[in-house]
Amino acid sequence: MPVTIKRIYDEVCKDDGVRVLVDRLWPRGLAREKVKIDYWMKHVAPSTHLRKWFYHDPVKFCEFKERYIEELMNEKEKNSQLEELKNLVAENRNVTLIYSAKDQKHNQAVVLKEILERQKKTR
């Protein structure tokens, strides 16, 4: 199964498989007890500085993607959680990356999905 992405506010489906929240901050307006999340990997999310700089501006997305990938490769905690995600995907489990951004095309989950799918194809 490919890696999928989904907003945390969308309905949970049995096909979601392992649900991984990839936001640094807990999503607004949601009680933790009511959200089905298997993992919260907040260290794999963009740094606060990068997140604030990007502010989900589609014009900045290409540069955001480059900076974010650089963070993932060069920061120990981020890289460690990225490896965990890669392992989940390698186990051929359904993995759904959960995010809270309104913009469904320009967010960190899109970048992570691309990275994970590339890695899966090379195995």
UniProtKB/TrEMBL annotation:
Keywords in alphabetical order: Coiled coil
Which Pfam families does the UniProt record give?
Answer: DUF488-N3i
Q: Is Coiled coil tagged as a keyword? A: yes
Q: What are the coiled-coil residue ranges?
A: 65-92
User: PANTHER family, from UniProt?
Assistant: CYTOPLASMIC PROTEIN (PTHR36849:SF1), CYTOPLASMIC PROTEIN-RELATED (PTHR36849)
Query: What is this protein's name?
Result: DUF488 family protein
